[in-house]
Amino acid sequence: MAHTPYPESYYAASANAVPPRPALQDEVETDVCVIGAGYTGLSSALFLLEHGFRVTVLEAAKVGFGASGRNGGQIVNSYSRDIDVIERSVGPKQAQLLGQMAFEGGRIIRERVAKYNIQCDLKDGGVFAAITAKQMGHLESQKRLWERFGHTQLELLDQRRIREVVACDQYIGGMLDMSGGHIHPLNLALGEAAAVESLGGTIYEQSSAVRIERGANPLVHTPQGKVRAKFIIVAGNAYLGNLVPELAAKSMPCGTQVIATEPLGEDLARAMLPQDYCVEDCNYLLDYYRLSGDKRLIFGGGVVYGARDPANIEAIIRPKMLKAFPQLKDVKIDYAWTGNFLLTLSRLPQVGRLGDNIYYSQGCSGHGVTYTHLAGKVLAEALRGQAERFDAFADLPHYPFPGGQMLRTPFAALGAWYYGLRDKFGF
């Protein structure tokens, strides 16, 4: 069977050492079979193991192979559509529940890091940077909105204050969220996988789920083995393929590009980001960046709809980096990579159940680091018979992309072009 290694990235090159995990070779029996060893699957597995379930995790490649091990590494609260948009769509009662959960994912990450001693360069503090007065107005209303749901670790930054936290003259202000922050995302996933195993869970790598036999005791087939379970959690996100056809029509894989510079040295790094916060701007097609543990600038942005790998990532991202930090014009780019996330038409996550025993969560729409950790807790609660929070997500309305599989990419790209123009001209 072909062995799928990690794609080349700064994260893969600096990953903590872990033992190789075997591929599934025979038939095993378990309470819960989790498909996918990214954050959603690992978070689900951990919560279930902590409540006494037997858990087997199947991973097509390696732990954290997908977006969980390739993302920008930023802990950003709430969802890809904020709570006010949700409230207009579903009403105050459901929005209240979802609003209360909007800041839980970051807390779960910190609890996991502390409880299982995960070495992943965790740093506190995330900045939303405004380029226009309209964006600043949005941050002011966002602060009021988040505070309504009990989230108080927020500070509005005027032009002087934002210069103190990021040496970039594009920004007129911003908002600092001290419960935001950043991590080495692959090392977080690897640490969570080790925690799963420390509690008696089993993870099989190079073991893609190729078919699910549904029924009272569903059976998941891999190329060389089978898992019989009472429940299945489908957590493949943008890497699920067509394993569950019902989930493919309402979502679209998208690629995002990231680069990492050579190490900048303490002085240059501190001059650019003195408090070591991570930053994202407020554009629809946003740029985001932060310092790594060894003081590289990790800079990401742009979306490729339909998840093609662009030929030259550095050519796409380096100009964005130099616009923000012209002082880096002579700095070498050591790594450039792409990773896929799953976009939904509503840009809200899709959560649900197929039949009585197959649960799923997918479609974080670029907001996955915190949401996936919450999703694991919500899925585990549902399997334990506590479904109120699960239902709040499951009841969100979702729609197939117009034109079906064939036209979803051009439609989405057209929308992105429109919003890109809005960003460019500030309207």
Automatic annotation (TrEMBL):
Gene3D superfamilies: D-Amino Acid Oxidase, subunit A, domain 2, FAD/NAD(P)-binding domain. GO terms for molecular function: oxidoreductase activity. It is an enzyme of class 1 (oxidoreductase). Residues 31-381 form the FAD dependent oxidoreductase domain. Keywords: Oxidoreductase. InterPro entries: FAD-dep_OxRdtase, FAD/NAD-bd_sf. Coiled coil: none annotated. This is Gamma-glutamylputrescine oxidoreductase. The gene is puuB_3.
